[in-house]
Write a structure and sequence with these properties.
With about 475 residues, this protein is of the alpha/beta class. The chain is about 45% helix and about 15% strand. It contains 20 helices and 15 strands. The strands form 4 sheets. A 6-stranded mixed β-sheet has the order 3-4-14-9-10-13, sandwiched between helices. It has a 5-stranded parallel β-sheet with strand order 8-5-6-7-15, sandwiched between helices. Helix 4 packs across helix 6 and helix 7 runs parallel beside helix 8. It is globular, with a radius of gyration of 21 Å.
């Protein structure tokens, strides 16, 4: 399988090349030339597989340049009961109102990002060792990507991690998870700004071809294709756990800020997984909700991005959205160049004439959840089902309940465990004990390492070069 850029000016690449490159040289995002198509017989065969077996079958369709035995070893080392606390890896449970929740947050950092990042860490190490190369990861996080990446890559040979986060905008638990790591290859940078500022810095560095080449810069943000392909797997797993036969359809509701998680659902659906609808749940930062309701995509600047109680979704520029729009407009690279030039100019664009296609052909629908909504939902689920859900998952549950149709099976993707957001949980349900794994007790009291820098890409580049040249 070969990969192309959404902007059409990058030579075809292999999976291993795409894995290490982040943004394409032309500024676009990498995608397969065509999505593999899964027929009924293959679906039936996959239904009985355990998670690592299923992951191998799916990822091997995309990573065709990695020998099967090596890929199987990478996957078998990644998806273990020890790492994810459960042999099922992503068990599905049912709430009292029939809504289903797929548990994606039992990995090392208690967030769904572990599902892809643990794979990425092992895949990076494999490809780098094979090619005798080094890689310096530059990423941005609104809360969960950073810790998932750092835990997956800490101590890995040939890899340094530089992770940007918005100063003071994450929960105390999220900060402690990242900043308490003392590994020499982990470098935390708190940027004076919002997450979108961090993301803009990453893209600015990615677009500096000379710097990127000199310092071997890669990324683990959701623009990285390796993350997307690993996330495709759990849509298939969730479907099989929720259905008895492949004649049934399942809809997925996904809390979304950067569009990476639900982009994987879009790809699973395009491959032939019987997905009914893909439900996008946003918080107060409702750029995606506005698009799926009106067809207008209007990214906000940092000054107009709300700071909310579901902080990992405090995003107003959905970096993965370009992949979906590429498919929506018939894989027209020149069209993408025009549209994203408008985004770059701060204007956005209007595709309202394609809204029927968005809803009918691609199955998208959306809704949003506000602070009062997520508190109410956390309270309801705790009262009715006796379990605590995190604020982002609560956004998903609220929107799923709002848009669910009669007879529709909806699986909400759990994005984190409640332990990461204790203050919001207690605001919702009172002073209850919020469970957390024993290994993470007292996390906030550990010494922390972080460098605070201004919102300036050049200064961040100086820090990276000084650190690497020591």
């Amino acid at each position: 399988m070969k990969y192309i850029s959404t902007r059409g000016a990058t030579a075809h690449k292999s999976f291993s090349e795409v894995l290490l490159m982040g943004l394409a040289p032309d500024g676009g995002l990498m995608l397969p030339e065509a999505y593999p198509q899964i027929d009924a017989a293959t679906l039936e065969k996959w239904r009985g597989l355990n998670y690592p077996e299923l992951a191998f079958e799916i990822i091997s369709l995309f990573a065709t340049d990695i020998p099967a035995a090596d890929l199987r070893d990478i996957i078998n080392r990644t998806y273990t009961a020890e790492a994810f606390g459960n042999a099922e890896i992503t068990p599905v449970r049912t709430l009292s109102d029939g809504l289903k929740i797929q548990a994606l947050s039992n990995g090392p950092t208690l967030a769904f990002k572990d599902m892809a990042m643990q794979f990425l860490g092992n895949a990076f190490e494999y490809v780098l060792a094979k090619e005798s190369r080094e890689l310096n990861i530059l990423g941005a996080t609104s809360g969960d990507t950073g810790s998932a990446a750092e835990y997956a890559l800490r101590g890995k040979k040939g890899i340094n991690v530089f992770m940007l986060s918005p100063e003071g905008r994450m929960s105390a638990f999220q900060r402690a998870q990242m900043f308490s790591l003392q590994d020499e290859n982990i470098h935390n940078i708190a940027v004076k700004g919002m997450f979108d500022d961090c993301q803009d810095i990453v893209k600015a560095v990615q677009n500096d071809a000379a710097f990127k080449e000199k310092y071997h810069i890669g990324t683990v943000n959701s623009i990285n294709w390796g993350r997307i392909v690993a996330q495709v797997v759990y849509y298939f797993a969730g479907y099989f756990k929720t259905t008895q036969s492949n004649s049934e359809k399942v809809s997925f509701c996904v809390p979304s800020g950067n569009f990476g998680n639900i982009c994987a659902g879009h790809i699973a659906r395009q491959m032939g997984l019987p997905v009914g609808r893909l439900i996008v749940a946003t918080n107060e930062n409702d750029v995606l909700d506005e698009f799926f309701k009106t067809g207008a995509y209007r990214p906000r600047n940092a000054d107009h991005t709300h700071v909310t109680s579901s902080p990992s979704m405090d995003i107003s520029k959905a970096s993965n959205f370009e992949r979906f729009v590429f498919d929506l407009i018939g894989r027209n690279s020149s069209g993408i160049q025009v549209l994203w030039a408008e985004v770059g100019a701060g204007k956005g664009f209007d595709l309202s004439f394609l809204l029927d296609k968005v809803h009918q052909q691609y199955g998208f629908v959306s809704g949003k959840s506000l602070h009062a909504d997520r508190l109410k939902t956390i309270r309801q689920v705790y009262g009715q089902d006796g379990e605590l859900i995190d604020p982002h998952t609560a956004d998903g549950v609220k929107v799923a309940r709002e848009v669910r149709q009669n007879g529709e099976t909806v699986v909400c993707l759990e994005t984190a465990l409640a332990a990461k957001f204790e203050s919001t949980i207690r605001e919702a349900v009172g002073n209850v004990a919020v469970p957390r794994p024993a290994a993470l007790q007292g996390l906030e009291n550990l010494p922390q390492r972080v460098r605070v820098l201004p919102n300036n890409a050049e200064i961040v580049k100086e820090f990276i070069s000084e650190t690497l040249e020591k």
